[in-house]
Specification:
The chain is of the alpha+beta class. It has 21 helices and 20 strands. The chain starts with a helix and ends with a helix. The mean pLDDT is about 90. Bound molecules: adenosine-5'-triphosphate (ATP).
Length: about 575
């Protein structure tokens, strides 16, 4: 509270000057620590001095909370003990308390040092005292105001901090669409530099993503697609017109996948497909999931290698332990070793002084997934081989060996055998990794999976973008079967995402929603390697999915298929459904 006086210093000086001019005497303000915080004339250059050892009149005001009007200081009992009494020049003193609620936080003191001054005051004493009391009240309300202001500033500061910590962008704009304020997230996403440009343009695309509006934000020559909410906050104030709270579309998608558990709970049921190849793949995963042996997953990009690796982990008896994925192609060679092995305190210049736990150690008791192992530099291959052989690691800068219990699953889209011939992949590591090989066939070799996968992805993106995918026009399949799918399932998934984006309300998914490259690829009389059995099995599965596999469900499915329940049972057995 006392510090507040020092924050109001300029105003205090102004106060004492005004009182001094009216009363024609010197005026000072004393705080509750008996420190002079403002003064005129004789006291002007004695601010901040303590008056404690001769503050007899001031003390009385603090004790009683009442005005002290002393007409003859030297003779007054209050001054009896004052050691300055003999040299005291004062002819009259008025001390008025400055209150803050019930508390006394200071005094306003006016001192006459000659007869004329005293006479001037005494002639109008009551009026002057009321005047000083009013000034004390004014000071009290200024203190309250200042405290309120400070509280608000603290809350604003706190809000600012909170806004900068959240994972959403916040931009405040004025009525001319100029940025007034923004948080760190918005700054990073939109690359805001208000020194360069403050103008921003926000337009709704009309799309909804997970129940939020999608917007195109144009700023500084760039366009960003975000999702969020706009709030009108113009309460007759041109300077603050609107707040937009947003997140990037990609982040939202990630969050959705995290929340829906699709990243963590990837089990066999997340591997979609009816083809023999997929069925065989799933069977193999459940057979080998709990084995301790190393697995090498091969397959073209986008065939689902990571999905299979996660399923292997989640189906294994290590499922509740960590699954740590390292993408060997995404980490620069110079960082890969410390990323994998970690380092001890002060291992090298520039290293984190606390040391770092490597990904291999993090995977202890769980699964280490070495993705894109074909991109691992040769010297690192040798080190990883040692981990496989010794089941232990030595951190960089450390001498101690740490025993580990990890299961290694590696994956690559490269032909490692070719690489061995070219001396770019170690033969010994290859055999160590390839104990259980799992090869995932490209989508073009199992086109019968396209229908179920595409339908699955349409549903997924329908949920994400809050669009109802009511039906699919059957003509679409001819195009999807004819396409080559060099990007495999990832490309099919992206196509489904594109189609859902293109879908307007009340439409059904049809060829007009497909990307042009797929429409262009259609060859006449395409040869689809689907047998009658495949179609029959798929139909039965679809009906069982719809009606359920209870007896009632099966009866309904048989009725819809136009076959007897006995025939249905026979076919279920035949197709191993
Ligand atoms: N059988 C499947 N069922 C459902 N989704 C699948 C299937 N196979 C792949 N996907 C999906 O396709 C996308 C690509 O899969 P994933 O990342 O596992 O492929 P990858 O072979 O590891 O690719 P890359 O070699 O490029 O790393 C992912 O979104 C994955 O969920």
């Amino acid at each position: 509270m006392e510090q507040l006086f020092s924050l109001l210093q300029d105003e205090l000086n102004h106060f004492v000057q005004v009182i001094s001019q009216v009363l024609k005497v010197d005026v000072q303000i004393i705080d509750s620590q008996y420190k002079r915080v403002a003064g005129t004339g004789y006291w002007q250059d004695k601010i901040d001095e303590s008056i404690r050892d001769h503050a007899y009149i001031t003390k009385r005001v603090f004790e009683t909370g009442k005005n002290a009007i002393i007409h003859n200081p030297k003779e007054n009992l209050i001054c009896n003990n004052c050691n300055k009494k003999d040299n005291c020049m004062e002819t009259m003193e008025i001390s008025i308390p400055i209150k803050f609620g019930e508390r006394i936080i200071g005094t306003i003191e006016c001192v006459c040092t000659n007869k004329e001054q005293k006479e001037y005051i005494v002639n109008n004493e009551n009026t002057y005292i009321v005047f000083i009391e009013q000034m004390a009240k004014l000071l009290e309300s200024r203190v309250i105001e200042e405290i309120e202001k400070r509280k608000k500033l603290k809350v604003l500061d706190l809000l600012d901090n909170v806004l900068n910590k959240i994972n959403e962008g916040v931009v405040i704009i004025d009525s001319d669409c100029n940025i007034v304020n923004f948080n760190n997230y918005a700054k990073n996403i939109l690359k805001i530099d208000t020194n360069l440009n403050r103008n921003i343009n926000i337009e709704s695309t009309g799309n909804m993503v997970l129940k939020l509006q999608e917007y195109k934000i144009k700023y500084n020559g760039n366009t960003f697609t975000v999702v969020g909410e706009r709030y009108d906050v113009n309460y007759g104030n041109q300077e603050i017109n609107e707040v937009i709270v947003f997140t990037s579309r990609e982040t939202l998608k990630e969050q959705f996948l995290e929340l829906s558990g699709s990243k963590h709970d990837i089990g066999l049921d997340k591997i979609i497909g009816n083809s023999k190849v997929v069925k065989e793949l799933k069977r193999k995963i459940s057979t080998v999931a709990s084995s301790e042996s190393t697995i090498l997953i091969t397959g073209e990009s986008g065939t689902g290698k990571e999905l299979v690796a996660r399923a292997l982990h989640n189906e294994s008896n290590r499922a509740d332990k960590p699954f740590v994925a390292v993408n060997c192609a995404a980490i620069p060679d110079s960082l890969l070793e410390s990323e994998l092995f970690g380092y001890s305190k002060g291992a090298f210049t520039g290293a984190n002084p606390k040391g770092k736990i490597g990904k291999i150690e993090l995977a202890d008791e769980g699964t280490l997934f070495l993705d894109e192992i074909g991109d691992m530099p040769l010297y690192m291959q040798a080190k990883v081989l040692r981990v496989l052989e010794d089941k232990s690691i030595v951190k960089l800068g450390d001498l101690e060996e740490k025993l580990l219990n990890i299961r290694i699953v590696a994956a690559t889209n490269k032909n490692l055998e070719e690489m061995i011939k070219e001396n770019t992949f170690r033969e010994d590591l290859y055999y160590r990794l390839n104990v259980i090989p799992i090869n995932i066939r490209p989508l073009r070799e199992r086109k019968e999976d396209i229908k179920i996968l595409f339908s699955h992805f349409l549903k997924k993106y329908g949920n994400i973008f809050n669009k109802e995918v009511r039906a699919i026009d059957k003509d679409i399949w001819t195009y999807l079967y004819a396409y080559d799918w060099s990007g495999n399932i990832r490309e099919l998934e992206n196509t489904a995402e594109y189609s859902v984006n293109m879908l307007k309300n009340d439409e059904i998914i049809s060829i007009e929603h497909l990307p042009s490259k797929i429409l262009a690829s259609r060859k006449p009389n395409i040869e689809i390697k689907i047998t009658l059995d495949d179609v029959e099995r798929q139909l039965i599965e679809e009906y069982l999915n719809t009606y359920g596999s209870s007896l009632e469900g099966k009866k309904k499915a048989a009725e819809k298929l136009g076959i007897s329940i006995a025939t249905l049972y026979r076919k279920i057995k035949k197709y191993n459904i």
